[in-house]
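debug: dumping io for the single-chain case to check the tokenizer round-trip. Nothing else runs in this session.
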Amino acid sequence: MNGYYAFNTSVDGQAFAVIVGGTGLGQARKVVSHTAETLTVDAPWRVPPAADSIITLCFLYKDQILYGNEMNAFPEGYQAGYSASNAMQFDGNCFGCVAEGNVSSRTTSARRIGGTMTAPSFWNEIRDEEARSCFSAGLIFDGWAWGKTQVIAPWLLGNAFRSCRIEVSPTTPPRGGFHGAVIQANLPRPDGPDGEIITACIAEGIHGRGGKAGVSIMDWSQVLLRRNRLEGPGAAAASSGKNARPIIAD
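debug: decoded output
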């Protein structure tokens, strides 16, 4: 078990053991008791962890559903400077959450699924969403970190954007580190060993307009792109890092 940082919160009955690497990757179980060397969880593992498994303790946002909301950010006609506004995000420690049928207008970016080494986000899905007049970017798979970054296992795994309608300003310059693309995988440069940070994620059935580019996939990202329709002057533009693994299946 790797390091655990306590924030005056009990582990037993609240924290989850998440297998973030090796045998059993992607599973989470609630901790019911622990010692300095062992964890006891509330249900059997489908695939038991082994000597190569990497386990971290997380306080998860698990199985949350956001459905059928309407969200408007900046007033019409307002020209925003940098803002972190995002209509919706599953960001760090999100596990098995779903958003469906929500509509937003005039946010900096449309939707975001994010995570970091000690706060991974696995198996989340955002589908059948509409985002109008985004100032900077559309759908973002976002690995983020403050300071030095070491990669011991994926930060994002099995997340999906599906059947979303996204409009990004074609003229406003990107802000806040975003890259102005309708679909993008955004992450820091690792300081430690190389490895995939965004793994087995998918963007499919996306209808996007505007943006400086249709797709931007940075290093250490594996993203499946399938049946997307991107329109506008920048739609054909696509960029990827030399260590990225975009998989185009259109």
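debug: round-trip ok. Residues 214 and 235 are 4 Å apart (CA to CA).
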